[in-house]
Design brief:
homotrimer; 271 residues; mainly beta; UDP N-Acetylglucosamine Acyltransferase, domain 1
Chain lengths: 271, 271, 271
């Protein structure tokens, strides 16, 4: 039995799709979703109800000859209900969102990224591959997020050092780093690779690779290698870098990070 | 005069309702709302526009034979516009939400609960009776919230002690406790009964009954009985436990908590 | 070329508009938007899709003879998709919102105000002119915000000193003040004019004019005049009061604040 009202591979009759949009093969589109001019959706994608794809940029409101720049969403996207994706962005394959996500213009998102319910990517951002952004995160303009980065709920990547000013200094987060719940990264802050920002931190200084910081203001607690599990039965296990023990949804699922890396190196060597 | 477009007891013609949903007597359903398979809505409920009830769980996207588990919403619900309630949950009578609330699967909600605008109950949670969750709260999976608990805006109940990991440790909050604005409760934390977590606290340790904690990290300030009103004309009044002086919407409204408790005890004794 | 589905000056046929609403000249209304009884929309406004204007107040759910009080939105509003504005408020000209903003009843908003995506004005509030509220801000009931005030993301203006209680003490913010990201202003707090609250502050005491506070709890750091730019090429520039160097979207754009103020004084003098 198929879901009544959200049948796979079907475009709900109440969806409104611009004649200037290009919809791939076997795409599902939910009720009341709006797809504006110049949107391209890859094959086998599922778009929930009440979404808006190709939302016009600010110029729509002031320029009478405004035309939507292209929005490209690659194959196998799962975009849950109520999400709004602006025109003028490029999104890689296997993209997945929660509900009511907003992604603004001039954003480049790599492959296999997930963005949680109510999060807001404010435009002119770069996200690498396998980025995991949980719900209610605000990623300010000009942010650069590496590969395999995790950002937990209600975190804010800011960009204006003297609000309000005309200076925009985006935050940068290195590969494999983790920003825990409700942290604020101040404008222009650089977080290294494999680092960890603890919950509710206000990060005012750059964070080196493989480093833990926490607090308001955040203090350097040393190396991530000194974080050990305290759960019964797992006491003493090193918990970071997380890629050594966490596999779900990652390209090394089933083989482990080290094996995957070896395979990648071998592949690169052969080519 | 009745509201044009949201007439009581009417199902707006633009709503899309699965033939496999069961709608009670005298239910109002607003425009563009979607009700999927296997949703049961109790009598005299009012569902606002742009809602989705019976949202499919994650398995919908991977299993071709997916069927929606039942969602049961009891009588007299008021669900405001844009709210999304997943299939596979059970919600007691007199449930009320703000706008754009999200309640995910496998959640059990007692009677007379209210959840504010944009709050997100992330699934596999238990809420008691008369719980008041204000707006923008995130209740992580496996959370257990007692009866008469208040949770204020932007509070997060977390569950992963070493993000990202495969460990899920839900937070527990005891009856009558209050979590003030923008607090974070770390994974597995237990808050006792009648306790108070002050605004913007990061709670890292369990909180005993009748105890105030506040700060980042939270510190124990002692007994809730030592919090006195400083407002002119009310100086020196004990403000906690709040149930002794606050009645609005509570089952003891008009008679006071002590009288209500005596009546309950008498009733139990007679039965 | 015009945007297919969001043509300027057109009311999308899927919008539902009460016969008791008054729509001005050259108003654009997007798909699936609902406009209830007694809403007045000024000329040349653009209302995005999926909006609700004239949302009924709480009394709708309990009073069978409920009638919507008027909602007045002045000319040239830009209200982005998914926004909900309650009946019973008055909004000045050139109002602009992000997506999914919520403005509740009995609120008075001056001219040229902007409210960002997902922010929630909880009713019975006063906002002056040229107020800039970024995304995900929660403005509690009874708040009073002056002119030219900036409030950054995830900030909360609270109002209940002993939650839950029946006391409501709104926050007041003076002209030209700035509240940075993720701050909490406790109930009844008064922020003076030209002041600055730093990111992630918990403000427990009133803040005098021209004063910087920061921290959890917030500490007084002294005068705003001692904040100097540290960016290369701009070292030593005084950054506050911001009105001396920031002009975008302000009435002094192109002439500077001082010149604008002189013009105003001259105008007042002549009248």
């Amino acid at each position: 039995m198929n879901m009544s009202g959200f049948e796979r591979g079907m475009i709900n009759p109440s969806a409104m799709i611009s004649p200037n949009a290009v919809i791939g093969q076997n795409v599902t589109i939910g009720a009341h979703t709006i797809i504006y001019d110049n949107v391209h959706i890859g094959d086998n994608s599922i778009i929930g109800p009440h979404c808006i794809l190709g939302e016009p940029a600010a110029e729509y409101y002031s320029q009478m000859d405004y035309q939507n720049p292209p929005l490209s969403i690659s194959e196998r996207a799962i975009i849950r209900s109520g999400s709004i994706i602006y025109s003028g962005s490029v999104i890689g394959p296997d993209f997945e969102t929660g509900h009511r996500v907003c992604v603004r213009e001039k954003t480049k998102i790599g492959k296999n990224c997930r963005i949680g319910t109510l999060s807001d990517i404010q435009g002119d951002c770069i996200l690498g591959d396998y980025v995991r952004i949980h719900g209610n995160v605000q990623v300010g303009q000009k942010s650069k997020i590496g590969n395999f980065v995790w950002v937990y709920p209600y975190t804010v990547l800011t960009n204006d050092p003297y609000p309000p000013s005309n200076i925009i200094m985006g935050v940068e987060i290195g590969d494999y780093s983790v920003i825990a719940t409700k942290s604020v990264l101040l404008p222009g802050i650089k977080i290294g690779k494999d680092s960890l920002v603890g919950a509710m931190s206000l990060v005012r200084h750059d964070v080196p690779d493989e480093t833990v910081v926490i607090g308001n203001p955040a203090k350097n607690l040393g190396s991530i290698h000194h974080i050990f599990n305290t759960q019964p039965g797992m006491e003493g296990n090193q918990m970071y870098p997380w890629r050594e023990h966490f596999e779900r949804g990652m390209p090394w699922q089933g083989i482990g990070y080290q094996q995957w890396k070896l395979m990648l190196q071998k592949k690169d060597h052969n080519v």
